[in-house]
Amino acid sequence: MKTIKFLTITIILIFTFSCEDDNNIGVDTISITVEDLHAPLEGGQGQSASGPFTKFNFEDGIQTNSETNWDIAFRGTSIIVNGGISMDTVDEPERNGNGAAYIFEGTMNEMEIVQTSLLVSDSQNSYAIPTGSGNGWYTYSGPPNHLINPTPGKILVFRTHNNKFAKVEILSYYLGAPENPDALSDQSRYYTFNYVYQPNEGATIFD
Amino acid sequence: MKKFYKLFSYSFLFIFSVNLSGQNSAIDSLNNKLNEIVITATKTERVLSSLPLNVTIIKKEDIQEINANRLSDVINEEVGLITVSDFGGGEGIQMQGLDSQYTLILIDNQPIIGRLAGTLDLDRIAVENIKQIEIVRGASSSLYGNEALAGVINIITENPKKGFNVTLSSSIETHNSLDNNLSLSFKEGKFTSSLFLNSYSSDGYDLNNNDELKTVNEFSNKTLQLKLGYEINKNFDIKLNSRYFVQSIENIVPNNLSGETFTTEDNLSLSVHHRSKKINTDLDVYFTSYYGDEYLKDENDIKVSESFYDQILFKPEIKSTYSVNENDKITFGLGLKHESLKRTFFDVDPKQNSPFLYFQYDYYLSEKINLILGGRYDHFKDYKSQFSPKFSGIYKINDDKSLKVSVGYGFKSPDFRQLYFNFSNSSVGYSVIGYNVYENVLNQLIEQGEISSIIIPADEFNESLKPENSLSINIGYNFSLNDNIKFKTNLFNNLTKELIDTRVVAIKTNGQNVFSYYNINEVLTSGLEFETIYKFDNYLKFSIGYQLLYAFDLDALDAFNNGDVYARLTVDSPAFRLKKSDYFGLFNRSRHMGVLKINYDNLEKKLSANLRLRYRSKYGLYDSNSNNYLDNYDDFVNGYITTNISVNKIINSSLTVSGGVENIFNHLDRQNISNLSGRIYFLRAKYNLK
Question: What ipTM was assigned to the predicted interfaces of this complex?
């Protein structure tokens, strides 16, 4: 198994201004940038995918090996949530939380209120965040550049395993988030993303 | 082999520099200007200046003075026309902002086939034996049917002149590119014949030394053309025209793999012409085949991949023109196209028979007004049959000014690939399925357990795929200020509908997509063409050409209007919404293109020279910010100018020696412009034996 490179987490803004809204009593939302979260994949490219998913917990803002205390997980370009049913690919973890997701089209700031009716969990046939270029979070450029880049304007909205909400904007799929990645020389499967976490249980408003 | 070519060309250069005798090509060119006859626009002989259509003629002298080797060299010097490299290295034409697949290419009035992935590679066509090239801009399906959506280019080859003629020419260029030509022609009494041989080879070049691939691989090709004619009597003649092309390209790829791309093309036509006082009838039977084979083998000579492409076209056509009076003509034609294709990634060997008929009424309303009304019906079994009307008119305001309008319908049928493809990419894992085999192939994939979900159900494929079609409008105004200054302007607007694109129809268990084809986009290309010629004196002539182009996908315009498109300024900054004005348009389209030519022609000193500048403003090749559209925040290829110079000296009446430099200022963009290899020097000798 490949060694998982350690990931750096930068906390850009921990506290935003406190909110007056009834919905958000208590703690303020948290904004975090995660850099180079490594999501290795074995197989793929036409072969069946295998290898452990890289699990992530929004509250702690770090990668985790916990069987239960995770919200989302990455393997190659696939993103799963801790909720619903496993598609039963090799090494895919069991879901035991209440996770769900949908994709909001717009900017991070425009994503203000979670539309809970749009949330879906993973299922036997498909993930809540659809796979394939143009269907989910990324665009594959095809020949000759073969780049996988996040599609701007796609905000991933997640319900965590324990009924809290987070919104995620993926920024890069390449190590070091280079400005002009080169699919031949830059290492892929390294996620850099911004997210805002709403720590109050059931609160659906970000601001 | 290579050494032989070298020897061949050097011997031309030196041996023939001793000879004397012959003709004066400059006087020939003066005579030609008086009767510029075009055949392509109406399928009848018409004088260029009287035509209501947007037509350009490139004459033999124009081709010779720039010392062009291949058709792409000639096309790139024309206003608004450029060749664009596809990923396979083919050089396809872009006309009025429309892709290579929408321009019909003819040699001696007959269509050329072998469009791999839509592109017809113009480097396949040698130019030394060309009499003239006729370019009709604007949809011309009313006479030509399929593919004539953007326009038609007809390459007319030289006809034998009286007596026995031999012409030899040879050139050597940077990259060890060698071009050798031999033309023999014979005309005596009722019999005419000509033979043309061309061999062209090059070592190719490499713009990017970081990989093991070459930008253009070493290649060699040969063209052979044989034309025979016999005049049975005054009214009746028969012609046989055949052409053969063979090319071999060396393939070298990483991991010690090597191979070859091999291409052959055959064209054979038999024409019978009958002329009477009122009625001219032509019967043409045309056969052409195109064969391509590509393989890679490893160091043990074991083939690791191979693909082939085997296409034929058979087309009999009969056409009659009835002269109502001195000027007015009615033309009727009918024929049949039989096409078939066998290739890798096809489960079936598709065949198609499409009968067609057309008419045209060429009518002079008055001395000053000429109207042409025409239409063609193409019958198809596998998709919607097409009726293509066209109307055009010219109003001669006076001897110096004329106004033209033409409105036409053009279409391009779904090609066999769009209908019958069954392809799975072995490295990434996606699949592409042709429209007509969708259900079968999808079921195969389901049986193999490769499909995880279906996005577009098979019954959406019940209705047949529609041909892509366009409504094209050209409005032209020509005027001459005096004998020395002439202007030509044209506004164009092509609204193309039912464009065929790919969409995701299912998702595979490996997470990759299955694509198939569908009719979706509407594309608008509109703009302005402008040309002016200024004869400064007997020696100097200036010509300037310019094209302004707007090329938009209408769905993309909507997406920008609705605010559905986003971009980022840097990789780590949040996405923001783009404005309507941020949409740049279609990929690989330059808003501005221009050509400037300065010709110097000194008959007394038998010396001519020309300087040509070609400009192309910035354009986008990739959606670098991954929002699926080309917008102002994408990376662009910078605008650039290439400068060419050519000098021709008539040593004596049979020998002309030329030399020159292309891309003098060595403009290079190694990443993005694969068909500019830097500065190129050439030397050429041409010898006429009467």
Answer: 0.82
